[in-house]
Every structure is written in structure tokens, then in C-alpha cells.
Amino acid sequence: MRPIEYRLPRRRQPVFACFKGVLRLFIRKVRVVTTEPLPTPCLYLANHANKMGPMIYEMFFPQYHVRWGAHEMLGSYTSRRTYLRDVFYIKKNGCSPKKAAFKAAFEAVFSGAIYRGIKILPTYPDGRLIRTVRKSAEILDNGISLMIYPENSDHGYHDVLTELFPGFVLLMEMYRKSRGEDIPVCPVYYHKKKRLIVVGKARTLAEFKQKNLRREEIGEAFRQMINDLYFRIEAGEFDPEQI
Q1: What does DSSP say about strands 185-191 and 43-46: parallel, antiparallel, or unpaired?
Q2: What is the distance between the alpha carbons of residues 166 and 217, in angstroms, rounded to a whole number?
Q3: DSSP of 212-231, one letter per residue?
Q4: b or e along 133-172 (b: 16 or more beta carbons within 10 Å of the residue's beta carbon)?
Q5: Strand intervals (E) in 156-195
Q6: Which of 40, 65, 164, 171 could form a cystine bridge with 223, CB 3.0-4.6 A?
């Protein structure tokens, strides 16, 4: 299958903006805490927070951004339905085949439009990923930030992330090699129960290269940073009365 052609999205999306306006009537506001001013552009590494995470980031994250997402969800109705049924609902959320089939058949009707609305850049589990990485660098060149959900969710979505896929490190390396500078990278955590998004301190590839860390080790370092935000949120560090 050929990679899906991706065009830089327009910042103004009148129809999708109306859709988000309707959603705001049903979704409680999410508070955002930043530990330092947000760099622009920036690469954000965030937890997926299951189904609603990407939409919550789209609605409440304070910086305009594009995000990585499964290429199947930008394909045909059949592609979306199959991915939702077999991967998202059965594999990642443990739904029964009957329930998964029903939900997938319904959601596949409109999910493609939503994915385009939240500005998804398609990703692939094979060599086509390099095209995603190159397109990501172009997006950053245009002053647009990028958000990636690198957690391994093959066994479900967890509050404490167990593993990160290191594909984002390839982007960090390619950006440095082709642009001659590092892109700032910030860990992000969305806590569903507290309705809170926290953005951590920006890091650069140079910090890890000085320690001669491999891609997997850099991925592990960022996993710990994202989880650290979760533990700090749980401890109440970012509760309103503490700020």
C-alpha cells in the first residue's frame, strides 16, 4: 500500500471548529499547567489516554500542533472499521468481538473526518515511517509543533507508561542532521481524573548524545519523564491550591 499523501492543514477549520464547539457543551474543561514557557516549534511526547486523549489535546492544549496517528484511520471506511474493531477495541481495549464490531462499524462512518480535523499525520509500522519523519521535519520547519503518542499500547493504555516506541528519536536525529540544530522536546501528561494536562521541561538531543545513549535508552529516558509528570500530578503538586 502506498503512503497516504499528506498536505499541511489549514489553521482555520470552520466546520471542525463548530464540531469542537458542540463537544465543549459535553466535555468539562481541562486545566493546563506548563512548567516553563512553551518553545515554538516543539516536539511534544504525550500519553494517549485511551480514546479521548487526542481530542482533549486538540481542544485544550495551548499551542497549535499536528500529531502522529495510525495511517489506517485516514484510509477508506473498511480500513477504519477494521482498525477500530481488531486493533483499538479488541486488542487494546479487550472488547468482545461482537461489541467491537458494532462500535467500529458506527464510528468508522465519521472517524475519518475527525482524524483529519485533529490534524493527523499518518504513521506506519514499516519502512514508510521515514516518509512520516521527513514530513514531520517539514512541519516543524513551518513553525508548527508536533505531538507524538509513542507509548506501546499493544496490551492496553496504562496510567504509568510501560514502554515507548523510539521512532520519535529518529525524528530528533534527522532534524539535527539536516537542520544543524536540535528541536526542543517536551514530555506531556494528561490526567483524566484530575482533568489536567502538565507540560514538562524541554530537552534536546544534545543532552543525550553527550551521554552516548542509544535510541532505546533515549526512549526510556523520556518514558520516565512522562511518568514522572504522572506521579507529580498524583502527589498533588499541580493542584490549584499548590500553584
Answers
A1: parallel
A2: 9
A3: T--HHHHHHHHHHHHHHHHH
A4: bebbbebbeeebbbbbbbbebeeebbeebebbbbbbbebb
A5: 185-191
A6: 164
- CA gap 47, 52 in Å, rounded: 11
As beta bridge partners, residue 43 has: 146, 185
For residue 34, what are the β-bridge partners? 199
The end-to-end CA distance of the chain, in Å, is: 50
Strands 43-46 and 145-148: parallel
96: Cα separation from own chain's centroid: 26
DSSP 8-state assignment for residue 183: P
Rounded CA-CA distance 205/191 in Å is: 27
Of 217, 183, 220, 189, residue with least CA distance to 203: 183
Does the pTM of the predicted model rise above 0.85?
yes
Reported as a single tens digit per residue, the pLDDT across 69-126 is: 999 999 999 999 999 999 999 999 999 999 999 999 999 999 988 988 899 999 998 8
Backbone angles phi, psi at 124, to 5 degrees: -135, 150
CB atoms near residue 201 (< 10 Å): 12
pLDDT along the chain (243 residues), means of 10: 66 77 89 95 97 94 95 94 97 96 96 90 90 93 95 95 95 94 98 97 95 94 98 95 72
Q: What share of the chain is helix, strand, coil (3-state, %, to 5)?
A: 45, 15, 40
